[in-house]
Design a protein that fits this description.
Number of strands: 14
CATH class of the largest domain: Alpha Beta
Strand order of the largest sheet: 3-2-4-5-7-6-12
CATH superfamily of the largest domain: Thiamin diphosphate (ThDP)-binding fold, Pyr/PP domains
Strand content: 15-25%
Shape: globular
Radius of gyration: 20 Å
CATH architecture of the largest domain: 3-Layer(aba) Sandwich
Distance between the termini: 46 Å
Largest sheet: 7 strands, mixed
Number of helices: 12
Structural class: alpha/beta
Length: 326
């Protein structure tokens, strides 16, 4: 079984489903001949042809509008926004049409499409290339929002997203596209959507995160273990809809929770998780829920971006504060 990086696992998943489903097509800017900015679709046009792996003009509104129409008529388009900062022209189609198709037609039509996008900071990119505005999509009714954090989860979750009968926003943390490799069998097996993954069992504190920040969260858990603190690590994976049951069950055991996200703090997914814990899990908490997040400002350019992203040190300091009051 080959060891592959996340970007390779994504390519494997798309290739697997292109072979299995003749109604699936890929569309996006430079995804064909060039294989995409990060080469996530490298080699797929050569294998499947330019009618199924389609290089589009630089027109995000058109790409998304075409995908909605194709999906409503039975095809399964998977489209790419080159970077999350370029996706805003697509939002109108996603919220006004894709997410409403099943409701609008009383179930007569669905919209089985996937909108893929690299997102997040940490690669020294210019402006509009490092956004983490997942909360915007999570707020849209009728749309799933999925964020993988490892090669194996990227493969299984993307397959599940493509097969889902409703629209999925699939956000790919580009900082870890090539960080770490795992054995991933190209067997067409999907992973479940709408569930959290417990990456590490613990008894003293629950660390909740998703996407690229899982890397720092696991590193922090290792350092906490050296200090005699047992941390349970949860990868949310699907941020809409949220699997709060798994998180609450963990907090019932540990009594403490720290949520780690690189997005801006205000009105983020971390805030939604914290609000749910206050509503459903408050009697199990030994200390207030804490968040370690980005800042309420535009992601800075590369000289300062690592100061913006939550660090292992910030996570450890926040966990110390939690234990100081419990």
């Amino acid at each position: 079984m080959p060891k592959v990086a996340m970007v390779e696992a994504l390519s494997m998943a798309m290739g697997s489903e292109l072979r299995a489903d003749k109604d699936m097509v890929l569309m996006g800017e430079d995804i064909g001949i060039n294989g995409g900015v990060f080469r996530a679709t490298s080699g797929l046009q050569e294998e499947f042809g330019d009618l199924r792996v389609i290089d589009t003009p630089l027109a995000e509104t058109m790409i998304c509008g075409m995908a909605v129409g194709m999906a409503a008529q039975g095809m399964r388009p998977v489209i790419e926004a080159q970077f999350m900062g370029f996706v805003y022209a697509m939002v109108d189609h996603m919220i006004s049409h894709a997410g409403r198709m099943r409701h609008r037609t009383r179930g007569r039509l669905s919209c089985p499409m996937v909108l893929r996008m690299p997102f997040g900071g940490g690669i020294h990119a210019p402006e509009h290339h490092s956004e983490s505005t997942e909360a915007m999509f999570a707020h849209m009714p009728g749309i799933r929002v999925v964020i993988p954090s490892s090669p194996s989860r990227a493969y299984g979750l993307l397959l599940a997203a493509i097969r889902d009968p409703d629209p999925v926003v699939f956000m790919e943390p580009k900082r870890i596209y090539r960080w770490g490799k795992e054995e991933v069998e190209d067997d067409g097996e999907e992973l479940p959507l709408d569930v959290c993954f417990i990456l590490r069992d613990g008894t003293d504190v629950t660390l909740v995160s998703w996407g690229a920040m899982i890397k720092e969260t696991l590193e922090a858990a290792d350092k906490l273990a050296e200090q005699g603190i047992s941390a349970e690590v949860i990868d949310v994976a699907t941020i809409s809809p949220l699997d709060m049951d798994t998180i609450i069950e963990s907090v019932e055991k540990t009594g403490r929770c720290v949520i780690i996200a690189e997005a801006a703090r205000h009105c983020g997914v971390a805030a939604e998780i914290a609000a749910n814990l206050a509503d459903r899990g408050i009697y199990n908490l030994l200390a207030p829920v804490k968040r370690v997040t980005g800042y309420d400002t535009v992601m800075p350019l590369y000289r300062m971006e690592m100061k913006y992203l939550p660090s292992v040190e910030r996570i450890l300091n926040t966990v110390k504060k939690v234990f100081a009051v419990s």
